[in-house]
Amino acid sequence: MLKIKNTLTGQLEEFKPIKKNGVSFYQCGPTVYWTQHIGNLRGMTWGDLIVRVFKFNGYDVVHVRNYTDVGHLTSDTDEGEDKMEKGAKRENATPQEIAEKYIKIFEEDTRALNLFEPSFKPRATGHIQEMIEMVKKLVDKGFAYSTDLAIYFETSKAKDYTRLSGQKLEENIAGAGIGDMNDPAKRNPADFVLWFFKAGKHKNALQHWPSPFKSPLVENGEGFPGWHIECSAMSKKYLEESFDVHMGGIEHIPVHHTNEIAQSESANGAPFV
């Protein structure tokens, strides 16, 4: 019998896969604007250990580990500068060139550590359409709303929004980020961005795409995805609406992982994990 610590319940629980003899595993991967430090690579090694334990116990494992190459702001919330743009400015390069450079270095590191190759290694910038579709579904279902500057997820409408972190909603506000301080239309400080319009503090964004969303400040809904929606869209594409195991940094439990659960379950109408 294989038992795993469930962060949601805080209990050691018997592992029961959704599909017999198979394990679907999503691991939040690196933001590729800089080299990964030893702590980052420790997390990748733990992910590899999880895969090896499942395989040793006879399971077929589908392991997805993404690359974040847009939308991850320096605060880990909705504040600050896009990390990819920060890297591009530092090296006088494009965000795409920065991503290619540091993905190559990261994969050299993982090979040196003898880590298994994931089944899929999706890049956020390669899945913009999937993100737009999920945001549109959240808007259509009443879980998200638009301002001139962004599309926000309305946290007050999510079922048990803070159940993963154990915080009260008001305690989560400090970690959620306030988006653009000049956005008077934001309804709640805890609401988080699904799609940034190329406006306000992001009017000079280096990476942006057209979208069906409307703002009087931009043409064709130009903008870029928020960090949290990226993992939700990519996990759904490669592992369906519900999967067995999710892994990421412990520091992301109160914000990133909490937001993944909220938006995924609201959009899909199914348990995230």
TrEMBL record:
InterPro entries, alphabetized: Cys-tRNA/MSH_ligase, Rossmann-like_a/b/a_fold, tRNA-synt_1_cat_dom
Gene Ontology molecular function: any one: cysteine-tRNA ligase activity
Pfam families: tRNA-synt_1e
GO biological process per UniProt: cysteinyl-tRNA aminoacylation
Keywords: ATP-binding, Ligase, Nucleotide-binding
Domain of life of the source: Bacteria
A GO term from the CC aspect: cytosol
SUPFAM superfamilies in the record: Nucleotidylyl transferase
tRNA synthetases class I catalytic domain ranges (all copies): 15-272
Subunit relationships: Monomer.
Listed name of the protein: Cysteine-tRNA ligase
Biological source species: Candidatus Yanofskybacteria bacterium GW2011_GWC2_41_9
Taxonomy of the source species: Bacteria, Candidatus Yanofskyibacteriota
